[in-house]
Amino acid sequence: MPGLDRFQEIISEGYTFKGDTITLGAAMHEGECQTGMFVSVPLKTLNRHGLIAGATGTGKTKTMQILAEQLSAKGIPVLMMDVKGDLSGIAAASEGHPKIDQRHEKIGFPFEPGASPVEFLTLSQDAGLRLRATVAEFGPVLFSKILGLNDIQAGITAVVFKYCDDLDIPLLDLKDFRKTLQYLSNEGKDEIEAQYGSIASSSVGAIMRKVVELEQQGADTFFGEPSFDVDDLCRIDEYGKGMVNVLRLTDIQDKPRLFSTFMLQLLAEIYATFPEEGDQDQPKLVLFIDEAHLIFEEAPKVLLDQLEVIVKLIRSKGVGVFFVTQNPADVPADILGQLGLKIQHSLRAFTAKDRKAIKLAAENFPESAFYEVDQLLTQMGIGEALVTVLNEKGIPTPLVHAYLRAPQSRMDVLLPAEIQKILRHSDLIDKYDRTIDRDSAHEILQQKIEAAREKEHQEKMQAQQEKAAGQKQASTANTFDKILNNPTTRQIGRVVARELTRGLLGVLGVGGTTRKRRR
Question: Is residue 340 within 8 Å of 50, Cβ to Cβ?
Fold first, then answer.
């Protein structure tokens, strides 16, 4: 194995960059920190994405915190997924500690406490600005993939979107989608068959069940208005620091479909709205997805395929995506191959399965003449990691065992009162801390259904009235007919007629007799 001089030569050459950088810590050789031999990351390559991996308690969260606060200090906005609820401390400066000072003395630069400007976001009822999106913003293809629909069901979903587009009916939330689907399969069936084709009731039922499943994971709180503007993630504060947007997701671990839905929609919206940036000196936005396995482990294949495509393409928009998880195997191989920066904390080797996973993890790194990677993966202490980055030419740097710096911000959570104070002073609180429930597909189609039912009722009542009038007229005619045709009536008529005749003749007879007698 090459000696220390050769190690210093290779590391110094590999981690010396022309552009601006952020410093992670110092290199280690044979378990000793090499003071002043800094391990840095060029800002220019941070939109090539990255991975932060390691077992529980090895320092992944603090590494994510280090990167986020250093990016913010360079004027780069950040979005962090706070699944465990332990990232809020980035909004407050560290109180310091003798162990932190000792660590930085070994690395080679002093510790400076500092806080980052923070915006708290949420998908649920937790404290923070509510993130929402409308069903229409997803579009039929992405919405069908989220629901895991087959081709026939996806076609019906496309009809729902097309019908609402053609009639300018807002499709905002899940109840709008359900109402439109119900209308087109029942009251509006005749209306759409000629133009869009028939809809099978069995397929409608299958789609409904998928929507209910999504609703049970809390998606009904996500779909709606006002929609979140992704440009609001890219704000810079008055001191030139990038805003750190902390998305609080402590109640999301049992709702993987909702998490996948949100992530895919967010990435798709960023890709659709952000302009092409080309090769900039630094990224426009960096996303950290903590507990990334929640996206992948229950996501359908079509969702993973879509995510892979977006990860590949979003780089050109100046956006970097970092996955944070326990084991690199949690990330699909096709996506793992797209990640330029890799920070690997220690792994546990308690079982045969663990040892196999460690061997696979070691193969994800460039070969090294200085480290037995598979052994080192189980021996690193807290706050240590194997690091490889892309240099300015896009070439992986030599693998280095790094002794990481400490976060400048608090390594603990904020109190609820501190979070509320930050929210009260938010520039976006008035924009997003409200719910808009304007007339949309649900209300419009319900009114249409009620109007059709009222018209049908009036037509039915009119028909009943006309039928009753006809029956009454027929009944009267039948009564006269029965009277006239009755034998008794005819006998009475004959008697009356005879008596009348006799009366008239009698009058004439009396008059004639009188005249004769007078003569």
Answer: yes
In a domain, 477, yes or no: no
C-alpha distances out from residue 473 to 210, 372, 459, 476, 499, Å: 57, 106, 21, 5, 34
216 domain-assigned:
yes
- Give the per-residue pLDDT at 2: 73
Structural domain range at position 498: 486-519
For residue 47, give the nearest of 400, 341, 269 by alpha carbon: 341
Is the pLDDT at 491 greater than 80? The verdict is no
* pLDDT confidence of residue 60: 93
Mean pLDDT of the chain: 85
Ramachandran sector of residue 241 (left: φ over 0; alpha: ψ -120 to 50; beta: rest): beta
Tokens read off for 479: 């009564």
For 133, counting Cβ atoms within 10 Å of its Cβ (0-12 exposed, 13-18 middle, 19+ buried), the class is buried
The answer to whether residue 145 is domain-embedded is yes
Least confidently predicted of 61-70, 88-97, 184-193: 184-193
CA 291, 285, 336, 347 dihedral sign is negative
| Domain identity same for 308 and 247 | yes
Distance, CA of 353 to CA of 313 (rounded, Å)? 34
Question: How is residue 377 written in tokens?
Answer: 């993966």
Same domain (yes/no): 293, 364: yes
